[in-house]
Design a protein that fits this description.
- The protein is α+β, with helices and mostly antiparallel strands and about 625 residues long.
- Helices cover about 20% and strands about 35% of the residues.
- It has an 8-stranded mixed sheet, with helices on both faces. The chain has a 4-stranded antiparallel sheet with strand order 1-2-3-4, with no helix packed on it.
Length: about 625
């Protein structure tokens, strides 16, 4: 088999031609993201074709990633931050007047909007949580979309981390106890107090409970529960009694809740747009499985699945539930999006997000299970180059972030770039990864730089034993927690990796906890404090330092590339500056890239292209992948 041509970095990491399409509530228009002046912006076209397509936002600085149709066909909302600082503002677009300026509905400097809800019961209104009064406390407010008037519905008493709007106008809140448990309460507006409904064991939910949504009947909430089980199932919690009643479950799979929340994807609950009724539930194993709970939706889903060999990804429908826009996840064909009319049976391809990529030249993503040294099963994905004998290849261990996240089947541009360059690519769902049950996740407690890292090393040994990886040409590459793992790999096991790339990764565990922004601090009890330690305790801080790459910087000898966003609020630039300076003082080969207009992960396409070009050159130089 002939080697495929080299795929350019631009083809994989430049702006997609189109992405993230949704249909309007009245079923007459489709919105999507597409480039304008090399930044993704919102475009709108008629449902029957795109000859009338026009760009309705005009951000030249930073790509738009999230937008919302409102119930009024005149208004569209979108959120945007500044340079990756995560201080999201809500903006309004007038679709009836192309010349009208965009209006910032939350024009408060340094303020962050956590959530945007458009309740069915409150037409013309947006419900938001924002910290305009006090940076560490989020109040609940209602915005009149047409006038921009903002009304505070509830002031945070100081310990609410999430508010919910009830169907009858009642307000509910989630708080964290001192032990890190999650409490659901009703807000008594008269008394200004919370009235406890139910408490959930925080040890089961390091990233919170996902999903957690008001049920359609208004008398309960639907949550992804682990109470008394290893796997997450869907239950209804009665808002009067706090009693859980099972709604749906899968015998072997978790609800795909935590991953979708962290990745800012839609809810795992598929709901009727007009009534809020539950239609289906998403579960995720090697691939996705959607369980329909509504017979009418089951018929729609059957026809949607027939459109593609991939997995149904993002879905939107009009208010009638008859017209749908559906995108699909595929390991070799990124984001194929269709229109489907259930009344007529009509369907048509709307777009492929990257039509210049040939699916036949892409590398398949193969699910594999690796056994760790203590017997734990590690669900993983192996991507091998097309047209190359899979024997003694240079390999890149691609480590996911979080660590409360997981790899999943689908188009991964990093894996495709590396496979195209001749590398085997291994992605491991090590202990601590979500989506594989409570036991798999909690096996990571106390195991940063311990068994979590051993899982990665065991996976490398597996690939070498399979014959596909050359033990002398193994690289490690990851972002966020994955960047930490890359640094641990070259600092704690300096002879195992021939090169490493740390992308917005942690070098000092205690310091990164102290420097996290105020809105994240309360949640540390349930995840970082429980899994790693509390930096306020001297003994625990000493243990954290011993598990931090900065403590063994003198052991690092492998070439290292470090990538950082200057505005990163989660892993601040000092985390990278410190380890780079220490290595350069020792004369270690370290390449350092900082982007002044980025945060925790690069968004703008020119920055992504710069980074992956540099990574491509770096890995070629040290691992020997092909460059022609």
């Amino acid at each position: 088999m002939a080697l495929p041509e080299l795929i350019t970095v631009e083809a994989l990491f430049g702006s997609p031609e189109r992405t993230t399409a949704t249909i309007s509530p009245d079923g007459t228009r489709i919105a999507y993201l597409a480039p304008w002046k090399n930044r993704l912006n919102v475009w709108v076209s008629g449902v029957d074709g795109d000859t009338d397509a026009r760009c309705v936002t005009s951000d030249e600085v930073r790509s738009v990633s999230t937008y919302y149709w409102t119930d009024d066909p005149r208004w569209l909302l979108y959120t945007q931050d500044t340079g990756g600082d995560e201080n999201w503002h809500v903006h309004r677009v007038d679709l009836d007047d192309p010349d009208a300026p965009v209006v910032d509905l939350t024009p408060f400097p340094g303020v962050k909007v956590l959530d945007v809800q458009l309740p069915i019961e409150r037409p013309g209104k947006a419900i938001v949580q924002l910290n305009a009064r006090k940076l560490e406390e989020f109040d609940l407010a209602e915005i009149d979309i047409a006038t921009g008037e903002l009304t505070v519905l509830a002031e945070n008493p100081g310990y609410v981390y999430d508010w919910m709007w009830g169907a009858a106008g009642e307000l509910f809140a989630r708080t964290l106890t001192a032990e890190g448990d999650i409490a659901l309460s009703r807000w008594n507006a008269v008394a200004g107090e919370l009235e406890l409904i139910a408490t959930f064991d925080g040890a089961d939910y390091p990233m919170g409970i996902h999903p957690f949504e008001m049920a359609a009947d208004g008398g309960g909430v639907w949550i992804g529960s682990m109470q008394g089980t290893d796997l997450t199932r869907l239950v209804r919690v009665d808002l009067t009694t706090g009693v859980e009643t099972e709604v749906d479950s899968h015998p072997t799979l978790d609800i795909d809740g935590a991953r979708r929340a962290v990745a800012a994807l839609s809810s795992p609950l598929i709901r009727n747009r007009r009534t809020g009724a539950l239609l289906g539930v998403r579960y995720l194993g090697e691939r996705q499985e959607i369980r329909p709970v509504d017979p009418a939706f089951a018929a729609v889903l059957q026809n949607l699945r027939a459109l593609s060999d991939g997995d149904v990804d993002e879905l939107s429908s009009d208010d009638s539930g008859q017209r749908w826009v559906a995108s699909f996840v595929d390991d070799r064909n990124p984001e194929v999006t269709y229109f489907y009319d259930h009344t007529t049976g009509e369907s048509r391809l709307l777009f492929r997000s990257r039509p210049r990529l040939d699916p036949d030249a892409m590398a398949p993503m193969k699910p594999v299970t690796i056994t760790a040294r203590d017997g734990l099963a590690l669900p993983s994905y192996l991507t091998l180059p097309v047209g190359i004998e899979p024997s003694a290849l240079p390999m890149v261990l691609l480590v996911h972030g979080g660590p409360w996240f997981r790899n999943s089947w689908g188009f991964d541009p990093e894996a495709q770039l590396l496979a195209n360059r001749g590398y085997a690519v291994l992605q491991v769902n090590f202990r601590g990864s979500t989506g594989y049950g409570k036991a798999h996740m909690q096996a990571a407690i106390g195991e940063f730089a311990g068994a979590m890292q051993d899982d990665l090393l065991d996976a490398v040994d597996w690939a070498v034993a399979q014959g596909c990886a050359d033990p002398d040409r193994i690289g490690i590459f990851g972002g966020s927690y994955g960047g930490y793992a890359a640094l641990v790999g070259v600092a704690f096991t300096p002879d195992r990796f021939a090169a490493a790339i740390d992308y917005v990764g942690v070098s000092n565990l205690a310091n990164v906890m102290r420097s996290m922004p105020p809105f994240l601090q309360p949640g540390l009890v349930a995840n970082w404090y429980r899994y790693v330690g509390d930096p306020a305790d001297p003994e625990q801080e000493a243990d954290m330092l011993a598990r931090s790459p900065i403590s063994r910087v003198d052991q690092i000898k492998a070439p290292l590339m470090v990538v950082q966003g200057a505005n990163d609020p989660r892993v601040v630039q000092a985390e990278s500056d410190t380890i780079v300076a220490a290595l350069r003082d020792r004369g270690v080969d370290v390449e350092y890239m900082v982007k002044d207009d980025e945060g925790h992960g690069f968004l703008n396409p020119d920055n992504q292209i710069d980074m992956y070009r540099a990574a491509d050159r770096f890995l070629h130089r040290h691992l020997g992948g092909r460059n022609r």
